[in-house]
Specification:
Layout lengths: L3 E5 L3 H12 L3 E5 L3 H8 L10 H11 L2 E4 L2 H7 L2 E4 L15 H10 L7 E5 L7 H12 L6 E5 L9 H6 L4 E5 L5 H10 L1 H5 L4 E5 H32 L3 H9 L20 H14 L7 H25 L6 E5 L14 H11 L3 E5 L4 H7 L4 E2 L3 H5 L4 E4 L4 H4 L3 H5 L6 E4 L6 H6 L3 E4 L6
Parallel strand pairs: 1-2, 1-4, 2-3, 4-5, 5-6, 7-8, 9-10, 9-12, 10-11, 12-13, 13-14
Antiparallel strand pairs: 6-7
Helix pairs in contact: 1-3, 10-12, 10-13, 12-13, 13-14
Bound molecules: uridine-5'-diphosphate-glucuronic acid (UGA).
Length: 443
């Protein structure tokens, strides 16, 4: 059955969710306070890069099932189900998450709700937020007790956002312990297609649903920092972290995924989520429980410094050296440069006196806004031309497929740091390159 849905926020999460809901057959209005974003989306254009999403947005703008507006009252009028997918970035100067955008949606939408409605929060929030918002909604919504809140965290990955939205590996719903029924029924209608396919559906309380989300990201961050900590030991002992990860990854209890040692994690989620989690634990008086996340963060940041030190060693002093940095996005198939290890390394090399030439297939423009003093070029070979050192900082397929001989013909010195351990090392060595991986001392 088709539902009338609104989605507040049209970033990676909101835009994908809105298009995904239209694909499931619902009628959707996406709401954003940014008129420029709304205008572009209404033309079927995306303000960011996400494979497959422009096609899906266009398909449903054309089908008439998806439209966008800056006017929250349009959403209140039209929809009975509202999703909140706005950002919760790190607060300026502290670890805690800034939930003001979520609160703003509730404060705007709440007073407009004069008939029964269900709101699902999808944004990542500190535990305790949902209950507070549910109480507030009852206070400010004219429909009062007929307005329900559910917390429905999102687990999509950038680069795979469409796939993860349409075929999630689980649906988690947090409900108010005192009034659980209605929200679950509405969620079952909205997600009927996925539930018919036996997607695991876990209904729990607000606090658990909020914690599920941050715990999942904290676990992933911990797994990456675990292997990066082992990489440090490999570097000191002459071992190879890739072989090690392959070997331990065969143990099903461990698994090979997210054991990719390299420059570590970045992006708009993992770094800020572990920090917000620590801040919230501290407020709850259990800061010791999450003390290890400080170390997870520390290991992660050390990888970036390590790459810069390695670069300095390889070129014999960065001052005046020309370095090609391949990659600026925090991961491939994305133009997102938030807390990007690649861009962090590129910027630090520049500050240490190197001439830095950056190429990213999608993120050059975003990177140039943050680091305008670096040189950006449109092609990896152009970036490498005349370089004393090449660093692969984001594992785009274009870089993994580079031909060592072709690149060698244009560089000044054939030295390469594989910051993501993504290159066929032996091929590069055979072609005459001095190759350094991360946690791969032997090469
Ligand atoms: C992450 C989670 O994976 C999603 O489940 C979650 O929904 C999302 O955050 C969110 O909270 O919105 P995402 O930030 O898109 O998704 O990126 P990931 O694929 O998790 O990668 C994060 C970082 O870890 C990247 O910088 C990546 O290069 C790095 N990484 C990943 C490694 O360094 N090694 C690995 O083995 C895997």
């Amino acid at each position: 059955m088709s539902e009338r849905i609104s989605v507040f926020g049209t970033g990676y999460l909101g835009a994908t969710h809105a298009a995904g809901m239209a694909e499931l057959g619902h009628e959707v209005v996406g709401v954003d306070i940014d008129p420029e974003k709304v205008a572009r989306l209404s033309r079927g254009e995306l303000p960011f890069y996400e494979p497959g999403l422009p096609e899906l947005v266009r398909k449903h703008v054309d089908s008439g099932r998806l439209r966008f507006t800056t006017d929250a009252s349009v959403a209140a009028e039209f929809a009975d189900v509202h999703f909140v997918g706005v950002g919760t970035p790190q607060k300026q100067g502290e670890y805690a998450a800034d939930v003001s955008q979520v609160e703003a949606v509730i404060e705007t939408l709440g007073p407009m709700l004069d008939r029964p409605a269900t709101i699902f929060g999808k944004s990542t929030v500190p535990v305790g937020t949902a209950q507070r918002l549910a109480d507030r909604l009852r206070e400010i919504a004219p429909a009062g007790e007929d307005v329900y809140l559910g917390w429905n965290p999102e687990f999509l990955r950038e680069g795979f956002a469409v796939e993860d939205t349409l075929r999630p590996d689980r649906i988690v719903l947090g409900v108010d312990r005192d009034r659980p029924g209605t929200v679950e029924e509405v969620a079952r209608r909205v997600y009927a297609d996925m539930l018919d396919r036996d997607t695991p559906f876990l209904v729990t309380d607000f606090a658990t649903s909020e914690l599920v989300k941050v715990s999942a990201n904290a676990f992933l961050a911990t797994k990456i920092s675990f292997i990066n900590a082992i990489a440090e030991v490999c570097e000191a002992s002459g071992a190879d972290v890739r072989d090690l990860a392959d070997a331990i990854g065969h143990d099903e209890r461990i698994g090979r995924k997210f054991l990719g040692a390299g420059l570590g994690f970045g992006g708009g989620c993992l770094p800020k989520d572990i920090r917000a989690f620590m801040a919230r634990a501290s407020e709850l008086g259990v800061d010791q429980a999450l003390m290890f996340l400080r170390e997870v963060d520390g290991v992660n940041m050390r990888r970036r410094e390590h790459a810069v030190t390695l670069a300095d060693d390889l070129v014999g002093g960065l001052s005046g050296a020309t370095v090609a940095v391949l990659g600026a996005a925090f991961k491939p198939n994305s133009d997102d440069i938030r807390d990007s290890p690649a861009l962090d390394v590129a910027g630090t090399l520049h500050l240490r006196g190197a001439q830095v030439r950056v190429h990213d297939p999608e993120a050059n423009a975003n990177a140039a806004r943050v680091w305008p003093t670096l040189t950006y070029v449109d092609d990896p070979i152009e970036a490498c031309t005349g370089a004393d050192l090449v660093i692969v900082a984001t594992e785009w397929k274009q870089f993994r497929d580079l031909d060592p001989a072709t690149v060698k013909a244009v560089v000044n010195e054939a030295r390469i740091i594989d910051g993501r351990n993504c290159l066929p090392a032996q091929e590069w060595i055979n072609a005459g390159w001095q190759y350094r991986g991360m946690g791969r001392h032997s090469q």
